[in-house]
Amino acid sequence: MKFSKKTGTICAFILGATILATSAFADIMLGSGYYRFKDSMKTTMVKLTSEVDNFSVDATISLKIDGKVFEESTSNVKYDIENKARESIDKNFKKGEVRENYWYSDEKQDIHKNFEDGSYNVFERRKSNNKTRKIIDNPFEDEQIKDAEKVLDALVGSLQEAIQVEESAGKKMYVGNLSESQIPSSINAISSFIFKYSILDEWDAKNLNVPHPKSNIYLISATGKAIENEDGIIESGIFTASMSAQDNKGNEHIYSLDFSFDIKDVNSTVVKAPNLDGEKVTYSKEGYEFDSKYIGKYKNDIVKDEGSSFKKVGERFIEITSIEDGNIKGKYYEKYNEGYEGDTVRSFDFYSNYDESKHFTIIYYTNDKGEKEKGIIDPTRVQNIRVSFNVTIDEDNGGYTSSNDDTFIRIFE
Length: 413
Prior knowledge:
The chain is α+β, with helices and mostly antiparallel strands. About 15% of the residues lie in helices and about 45% in strands. The chain is built from five helices and 23 strands.
């Protein structure tokens, strides 16, 4: 069962928005619910991602075949928007086994627990990431979701008037049932496509040892309910969709997808890093951190094209003289053979600040004209290094441009 963040949002959006209302919840009927429900979802995400300080979410999603659960995932996630921290405990039931996952994340680190041996992996972040990093994004700002909304608006058509909103004690309820005879062919086609290729594709079915929905796939029912609280936040929801499909052998099966969630403890959720005292912990840092084994001398050849042949006319050298906490100090210089001296023989010292290098190790130096410039240095081929000088760096997109990109070979004395 495959659910990326975007796929999960799209599926929940389509499930919720296609449900028709038939039940009674209170005395006041507010009429058409499609646009109200859609606006409520958008309002909820705006509030949760930018207006509240913290909150928790409990969610469960399960798949059944002919009434039997073959995969189920539960998740408890705590968000601290103000301090950019997140903690999640996930359980996944698959092939008769239950697997657990624990993650903690903040501006400084990611922590993952290995339930097999009880150990922890701590991944330390670089400081430069903290300025733009968000603990949760608003999915409705994503282009794919915006496009999905336009498609759904066109598909729903006359059904938008059938979704009902009801109110009681300051809360609103979006509720409904959709039977096989009420489902338009367009909605059926989209739902079938998502189910076959995004939720239970052929590879997943084979891996889970369950029948793959191969042909004659159609939605037979959809039911759901979502409650919006007094603050305009959808605090809970439960959706179910059932589909009929034939497997590779032509046998018919009923596949059911159940999804439920509760948003709770708004502005009262506490997110704390786990206490790792006495625990077995493996530490690593974001990006590549140079260590002391790279201290030494490296070179590459200066080669001249003489028309009918190439001739070595000198050598370039890099000496890494010290490395401390990932910070490099060293020097670059050139030596030409007699009779082949260059117009400018370059020589300068350089250094790097590990915490300032977001996607790669940036070195700083002053060129022969007294101008401050940047370069990139990375390990390559185990013991060697690759260096680019006079680079233009695009930190936001993690890229750079350079007129040269040279590999320097380690010299073993």
